[in-house]
UniProtKB/TrEMBL annotation:
It comes from Brassica campestris (Field mustard). GO terms for cellular component: cytosolic large ribosomal subunit. Belongs to the eukaryotic ribosomal protein eL15 family. The lineage of its organism: Eukaryota, Viridiplantae, Streptophyta, Embryophyta, Tracheophyta. This is Ribosomal protein L15. One of its GO terms (molecular function) is structural constituent of ribosome. Residues 233-275 are annotated as: Disordered. InterPro entries: Rbsml_eL15_core_dom_sf, Ribosomal_eL15, Ribosomal_eL15_CS, Ribosomal_uL23/eL15/eS24_sf. Residues 264-275 have a biased composition (Polar residues). GO terms for biological process: cytoplasmic translation.
Amino acid sequence: MEMCPTYIITIYLLIGISNSISLSRGISFSGTTTENADQSSNSLNGKTKLSAMTNYGDNSYLAPVVCGSSKMGAYKYVSELWRKKQSDVMRFVQRVRCWEYRQQPSIVRLVRPTRPDRARRLGYKAKQGFVVYRVRVRRGGRKRPVPKGIVYGKPTNQGVTQLKFQRSKRSVAEERAGRKLGGLRVVNSYWLNEDSTYKYYEIILVDPAHNAVRNDPRINWICNPVHKHRELRGLTSEGKKNRGLRGKGHRNHKNRPSRRATWKKNNSLSLRRYR
């Protein structure tokens, strides 16, 4: 009998939670041990600050927060989980998810983002007009697209393999999503998963014709026609990074407006016709 991957993940998460509880045996819900109860009573007036330094192993992110620490929202805990990608639970979950992703097409629409904390930081809203797609990109270098490996020209340009593409896989994923969904606008994207063959990204897109988007002053800038296919022109966050536009000031002057435009300006001689 085959078991559903979601059912397997649920079982494993329950096992991981039970292990973390067993590791924290003797710790109360406030995060302090029973023998330190007297000390915790003095923590209210700021005399002592306790922290539960128990051995959580790979599940150290489950350690309780004690005494005077600020409250964290739900997305903060989710982001902490994703920061510990090498923990046993996350490695297992990601491995099972990768198996599921491989069985599906390269571009798939999702009901909701897999990483809601990351998606919201990058502009996603759970409202009409916003959609999320998962895109699969093959890893590795890029061969020169020439028939039978024959490159006509000078010997310095004869290379076919061992060539490196100038843009990142994330930028390629945005491009493919934008070409597939021509009526939508790409807002941003983020890394999701990877295995030995593929990398997976989730792309946030909006419908510029939807009233919920057009009437939202925080996102309706993207409805302007100048933002059509911004992912194909290097205008997204990842596109600007690949163009070298993340830095400012010293050692970044030749990157603006672009490296080619700066080179052309510095290597062109323009003379007035009548001198």
